[in-house]
Specification:
Layout (H helix, E strand, L loop, with lengths): L2 E2 L5 E11 L2 E8 L1 H5 L4 H4 L11 E5 L8 H10 L1 H13 L1 H10 L10 H24 L1
Antiparallel strand pairs: 1-2, 2-3, 3-4
InterPro entries: Tnp_DDE_dom
Protein name: Transposase
Organism: Vibrio tapetis subsp. tapetis
Length: 138
């Protein structure tokens, strides 16, 4: 996504998913040095540029209320880049969780509190790694 100000200067994308007054859209900001010296300043800015940013523009996305996150994720995964990354995930991450939760039946934490749960997860992971080492030796 790119944007240019009325003087033709590039503006930087400050947020792809900004929410302003309940509307989702893309927000662009002009570079302060460009706005301070611009001849179009009285026409495109309500106030002189501040200390940090120049002109700001917000473009509202159409149909944000009907946006289907499930379909967007399916499209992302079905793209060539998504396929490549998802295939890595299936080979690296999923078997570990499957082994810990299904094969070893450690699918619940029996302790309460973040520290204790982290320690219990570390033990689950250690057990998984010890089993992998044992299988390499045998």
């Amino acid at each position: 996504m790119t944007c240019r100000c009325p003087a033709g200067n590039m503006m930087r994308l400050s947020s792809k998913n900004a929410v302003i007054r309940g509307e989702r859209g893309a927000q662009f900001c002009g570079y302060l040095n460009d706005c301070r010296q611009c001849v179009h300043q009285p026409l495109c800015m309500r106030k002189p540029p501040g200390k940090q940013v120049g002109r700001q523009v917000f473009f509202i996305y159409k149909n944000t209320k009907d946006f289907d996150h499930m379909q967007a994720m399916k499209d992302k995964i079905d793209s060539p880049e998504g396929r490549r990354q998802y295939s890595k995930r299936l080979g690296c991450v999923e078997p570990v969780f499957g082994n810990i939760t299904v094969n070893k039946q450690m699918n619940r934490f029996t302790l309460r509190g973040q520290e204790k749960v982290n320690a219990q997860w570390a033990m689950f992971s250690m057990l998984h790694n010890m089993e992998k080492l044992r299988n390499c030796i045998i």
